[in-house]
Amino acid sequence: MELVLGKEEIANLIPHSGNMCLLDGVIGWDEAGIRCISTSHTDAANPMARNGRLSAICGLEYAAQAMAVHGGLAGDVEAQPRMGLLVSVRNLVCRTDRLDRYEGPLIVRAGRLFGERERVIYEFSLHVGDSELMAGRATAVLQQQFL
What we know:
Thiol Ester Dehydrase, Chain A; seven-stranded antiparallel sheet; 2 helices; 16% helix
C-alpha cells in the first residue's frame, strides 16, 4: 500500500510524539474519512503494551489518533494540533482480546458522522486483513489549546 502521508507528517498533525504516535501512515483520506496503517501493535515496546501484550481496548487510541489526523487534514492544517478528549464510545464491538496476536498491518478506518469546532463524532473500525478486530462510534471534545 502506498502512503499518502508518513509518520513524520502525522506527528505534525496530532499532539502525540515519539513512540506514542502509533500510526505509520495514511493510505487514503477525503472529507468524509480516513484510512491509516500501523504495525506498532506488534511491537513489544509499544507504550501501551503490558508484559509485551497489547490489549484490544488500546484500539480506541489507534482510532482516536486516526480521527485526529483526519481532523488535521480536513480542517485548518496551519493551526497547532489541538488535544481531543474522548468523551463517549458507543456500539463498541471487540472481536479479540489482544491486538498483538495479529501479525499483518493494522488498518484503522475513521469516518466523520458529525463535526463542529469543539465536538466531533466518528465511526471507526480496525482490521488486519479480512478480520475486523474492533468497531464502534466515538465522540471527542476538542480543546482550544494544550493543557
